[in-house]
Amino acid sequence: MMKSTIKIYAFSAALMLGAVGCKKQLDLLPTDTIVEANAFQSVADLQRGLNTVYARYANYENSMFLASTLADEAKFGPDNGGQGQFVIRYQYNSDPTTGGDVIAGWGAFYSMLDFCNRTLAKIDEIRGTTAEEAQKPAIRGQLLALRAAAHFELFRYYCGNYDAAGLGMVYMEKPSIDPAPRINMGEYFTKLKADLVAAKALVPNNLTDVNRVNVASVAALQARVALYLREWANAEAFATEYINAVPLATRAQFPGIWTDVNTAEQSFRLVRTNTLGGRIGSFFRATSASTTNIGQVTWRPAQKLWDTYDQANDVRFAAYFKDEPLLTSAGRGSRLVQKYAGSAYATPNENVANAKVFRTAEMYLIRAEARAEQGRFSGATGADADINTLRSNRINGYTNVTFTSAAQAINEVLSERYKELCYEGHRFFDLKRRGLPVSRLSADAPSSAGTTLDANNFRFVLPIPLPEMVANPAMKQNPGYQ
Amino acid sequence: MKIVASANFAYKITKNLTANAIIGADFRETQNTFYNDPRTFDNTTSTDIRTRSGSISEGLGRFLQYNTRASLNYNKTFASKHELDVSAVGEYLEYRVKNMNLQGFGIDPRRPNTLAGITPGSVQNQLVPIISGGRSVRALASAMGLAKYTFDKKYTVNLSYRYDGSSQLPQQNRYTTFYSAGVTWDVLKENFMRNFSKVNTLRMRASYGTSANADNFPFGDFGYLPQFSIGADGAGNQTLGVSALGNPAATWEFTKMLNVGVDFAFFNSRLNGTVEFYNKLTEQAFANQSLSLTGGFGAISANAAKVRNRGVEYSINYDLVRNKNLVLTLNANGSYNHNEVVSLGQVANFQQGTSLISVGLPLGTHWEVGWAGVDPASGRPLYYDAFGNVTNLYSAANRTQRWGTSFAPWIGGFGYTLRYRNLDMQVLMNYQDGSFRVNNLEFFMENPGFLAGGLNSAVAGRFWRGPGDTEATVQSPLYQNQFSSKYIQDASFLRLRTVTIGYNIPERSLKQMKFISSLRFYLAGQNLATWAKWKGYDPEDNNNISLSEFPNPRTITMGVDIRF
Q1: A136-158 vs A185-200: helix crossing angle, rounded to 10
Q2: Could you give the angle at the alpha carbon of A184 between the alpha carbons of A183 and A188, nearest 5°?
Q3: Is the CB of A107 less than 8 angstroms away from the CB of B137?
Q4: Which of B183, B144, B180 is nearest to B159 (CA)?
Q5: How far apart are CA B70 and CA A18, in angstroms?
Q6: How far apart (Å, rounded) are the C-alpha atoms in residues A209 and B236?
Q7: What is d(CA A462, CA A104) in angstroms, rounded to the nearest whole number?
Q8: Which residues from chain B sit within 8 angstroms of residue A348, using beta carbons?
Q9: For the whole model, what pTM was predicted?
Q10: Do A113 and B296 touch (CB under 8 A)?
Q11: Among A254, A304, A367, B193, which one is most buried in terms of CB atoms within 10 A?
């Protein structure tokens, strides 16, 4: 009897363990990894999430390179081993082999947006001390501004010129892996502008930390958006707001911008170290083995751009370019892009430079274009006043000019943008939005076939990546790449 | 160290009702020590202080699996014709792993090979020890009902029902049910078979059921959850971001399988074998599904695929001669399997690495740009574009799926065994047909980038030599070599797998040697000959791209088998 009691007891215990207790037993959570449930626990974690988004803004450089090599700012360097060949020759398609450079932005910006939205989704769940709670609006504001900025880059790459009824992109407002269709540009920019308005009310209104988004930089993005949307009055107003907040760099300050000794006229920059975001200058020239053995020159300045400057008096020329005798003696040409050269050859910070996202010079140029478009090409609030202000802060012994037509003013603005903003991610998109062709000098073209890209050619709108087309049945490819 | 313990309790409640309980545990502990003496030459010359000072690391891993299983079984035969066997089973399995590792530096050579010999670390001496470790757990719970009914030993019906839960799936998809039903008919037990004396076995089987593989989740214990990681941005700020997408919608993949088979033996069992037809549909199968990048991730392991395997398997033996001194048995076995991706959910194609899984095509289907030869005039490589036109521009956008699959639909073997008195011989051939694989080594050999590193003379003669060279099969070294259909080769083969010849010393001769019960001499050869169009090392492998895998070796073994 005793024996069978023990048996029944053991059996019941096993049955309980085996069948009854199992529901709870399966609700296990990991101990070693950080998961959704415990990732964000404090306002400091939200700040870390925001830092990640800034770090993921690395693809801003890609815009800088594309806008140069797709247009007429750069030509093959003597040591180019095929880098960017499909881009400069206009042979890119939607596949990773030929289109790798032009489709990279797609995944990079949407990945940044996913990071952005995942942190935004957590802000309301976190409760902190009063002091910590006070940091939350600024975190939300920066995330919204960065969300708008990434969406704006996607528009510049993959959409045609602004047309409210034309195809925009997918606007990501929450984390989601569901395939989504493109929405039209009208709706797209309604969302984008709303993010900027919301951001502007939340971000700090000072220039204490230009590594982080502030009111002036939101105004700058609003001005840029208005420029691309041809909303001239808005473009002028937002540019003016920026100009009033951040004075233009003087001729004396100007070279220091590019060696990162000052932050004159910048409201926002992306900090780059030799571990964060990579060496921007290495796009043009690889790091050097020694002070005399200069790294491989993959891209050099286009002759066309080089010849645009008053080389003796324009402070921009020396800040942006270099005629290097060491290269001449090695039979490797001589001209170099100096804009992002960082510290000296073969030093740890060679080619390390911050990415300047918003500068006052660009705002003067946006305002000049907006004024000319509104018929005010000349006068105290005319396009020529802005151009004269900018040039007199760049060129020694500059004499003011007076514009006599809107068309002349716009031409002058475009050529000034070419000189002032080269390698900063504008040229190709400027030609695209103005409906102008890319016309290279034959000395700059990779081949006779690559001399021109006709105005409004389909290649001004870059292809949606093939992997996206395979994965997302709702996605619509841009014309010409089907 | 390994400890396996289990306890089994059985209690007969009534004559026909039995209760069973099993509690088992399996515990394993592994230890490893790695000692790096500071006096070795490599270490004394190292520039790294931690290498130069020597190191010792100790690792400890523990694995514990325990399970409990409780069951009730009812077994009774009614009216001597109706056999009934019914069980209810509850089972729980849990796996736990835990490991730790530590590495100390600055070994005192007087105390080698022990943790006592390490130097306490500090920031100044840069000898701070490294400590790491972790733990994880997963569990599986099941409840089952099983029933078996046999009528008059002729007809048997099997039914089963399972309710399974796994901790490796998100809460809402954690539990699922499976069932199966089967019938067996022993035809020989029928009265009408009495006159067929040449039939020795005739059994027909059919079953249908669902099942799942709880060990088949593509991610680890908690991989379904999105994972985050803390890092640094390189400018002195801490970052926190999602590092793995996981799949919060992951669920069970399961198969629906229909089996129909027959076992037979005729003529005193001289001819015997099995033939089986199956249709297996794997649903919600995990596949690495490419995602719209708008969500920030390129791929997810999703329950998106439906794959069908349908085919026939057979095995037949025939004793051609069977008498006291001579037995000659012919045997053959083989299978035909038709594999097809039936559905991929929302899309028609998945990009998986370099291949494209497509609805209507088998798994393992190659996706490459078509090779169109070498342009005799310029030496440029020529390719086919997606529409079949020749082009000299290589573009991955022109990849097509006209190049077959790496999984062979036809697999099998045949041979014979011969015994004459004490001499025996076995011969086995095997084959596969319909498989195509990429010969990656040929791609390397023809790669102009490797020319400087040494040139294969057989390949050298195939490079384009000058305008008008129509013989060349490899482009001018001026042009980059690309992956194309050129490297996809027929991996069908016929192989002489084994030949064995043996001689057993007759028993009566052994009787004189009291300690030896049997003595056999044999000579065996493996992979003696292969017939194939394949140009790489070995056509036989289960991957789609052949790299430098070790081929099946040709071995010849001579041996003596002695039993005491």
Answers
A1: 150
A2: 75
A3: no
A4: B180
A5: 6
A6: 14
A7: 11
A8: none
A9: 0.78
A10: yes
A11: A367
